[in-house]
Amino acid sequence: MAAVLRRCASCSSFVKSALTERNSFSTSLALFKKDVWVTCTKALISAQFIQNRNYAASDKDKEYEKLWAAVTGGRGTGRGTKKKIVKGVDPKLLKYDKAGLKWEGFNAPIGIGEEEKVDDTEGETVQMRTVQKGWSGRTWPGRSIGSPLTADGVVLKDFHSVVIELRRVSNMTPGGRKKTQRAIVVVGNKNGVAGFGVGRGQAPLSAMKQARNKAVNYLYFVERCNDHTIYHDLETRHKKTIINFYRKPPGYGLRCHRAIKEIAVLLGIKDMRCKVRGPTTPLSLIRAAFQGLLSQETHQQLADRTGLNVVELRAECGMRPVIVASPSVETQKKMLKKRSDKDEYDLNEIFDPYRGLHRPKKRTELL
């Protein structure tokens, strides 16, 4: 704009000087061409229009403000204003040190236990941690949602829960597509008892609570060897998902899929290794894991089945044989009579793929 004004001012001064000097007007006119006169006249008209422009406040400025608000105000006024979600922030969380909050690694040592907060309105105990993260950030899978409730509203404080999956599903109905939330939650008391449940709801929290409370009605008891590992190596299959379980010594830890690891922690298993082959769908993975852990054969069951003593070579005893289970007297007599009366060899015993060791239970035996 400044360049245009300077151009207009130079052209106007030149024209005025040319008009005042009437004697030299004819000579100056010969120096200019037709296009120069057209440019000068346009510049004069634009300069006159700029001088006569009114810069006072008017209704046009208000229209400009409305236009600017419509451009920068989000959705605009035509479709309605954008809804403002008021977040319920606890005023205690906005304070520091006055609220008595403990942050691991900042004002408290790392490894603080879980704190329990009781809600008197619902009669429910919710376990909270100052810093609680899931498998990937602050998402729900991998996080705890508190202790489950019975049908009577009693809080089971000995049980803990972990969310395995939370996803949105849809179902086509005559009224249209209906979207809901589906959650898979595993609960356990860290002492050999655990179960899982599937819940649905319109909101994520309602679906997770329904799955958590439903899992208490479907609990399983899993045997543990010396309260830290499984009894023997085994392989289980559910649909196309195959899981191999391996028994490990104390101090090995849990090296398995994250969903199986959460199940092992809730069962109280500390040392185990798993190898998953095939699809890792959460529901199929959980069913295969429970099926495999329930199909293991204990030392006493092996002794009663074979009628022999079960012996282990343990490193803490200098790799000497230690009897860990013995059959009952009735079982010994029964197996001796069976072997003495038998004239032919049992081919099943000779070609046993497990070589007389632990044999996983069949699916029919688990029902």
TrEMBL record:
InterPro entries: Ribosomal_Su5_D2-typ_SF (IPR020568), Ribosomal_uS5 (IPR000851), Ribosomal_uS5_C (IPR005324), Ribosomal_uS5_N (IPR013810), Ribsml_uS5_D2-typ_fold_subgr (IPR014721). The keyword Metal-binding does not apply. SUPFAM superfamilies: dsRNA-binding domain-like, Ribosomal protein S5 domain 2-like. Pfam families: Ribosomal_S5, Ribosomal_S5_C. Residues 159-222 form the S5 DRBM domain. PROSITE patterns: S5_DSRBD. Keywords: Ribonucleoprotein, Ribosomal protein. It comes from the Eukaryota. Belongs to the universal ribosomal protein uS5 family. This is S5 DRBM domain-containing protein. It comes from Porites lobata.
